[in-house]
Design brief:
single chain; alpha+beta; 2 domains; 2 helices; 35% helix
């Protein structure tokens, strides 16, 4: 029978053998991964979406729901007209509406509070 000191040595040797086996397995796995890894290049086939791509029909539907459609890109910094009365006298109430893509305005002429679709 082995004393406790020798038992500890045998256990340490067993652990080292397992670690050596795992290290060898890891090296093989890395070699396989290197062999199957391919360089990939991604090309964007189209330009990112913009509010300029929104159809006239979609803009009319927004107006019908009381939402000011996005302005053309050159006018992006301007305030939109009121969708109810068409007045340009509007006050920005909040840069964010119910969603991040809209802003909240109030018309000074008719008092209507409305959302405007942001131009992107």
């Amino acid at each position: 029978m082995l004393d406790q000191c020798h038992q500890g040595q045998w256990k340490a040797l067993a652990v080292l053998n397992v670690l050596g086996y795992l290290e060898a397995e890891a090296e093989v796995l890395v070699e396989v991964l290197v062999m199957v890894t391919a360089e990939v290049e991604v090309e964007e086939a189209r330009t990112p979406w913009s509010t300029e791509a929104m159809t006239e029909e979609a803009r009319e539907k927004l107006l019908g729901y009381g939402v000011a459609p996005p302005l053309p890109l050159p006018m992006a910094g301007e305030d939109p007209p009121c969708p109810r009365c068409g007045s340009r006298e509007v006050v920005l109430k909040n840069p964010f509406g119910a969603t991040l893509c809209k802003t909240l305005y109030q018309c000074a002429a008719c008092g209507e509070v409305f959302e405007a679709f942001k131009t992107v």
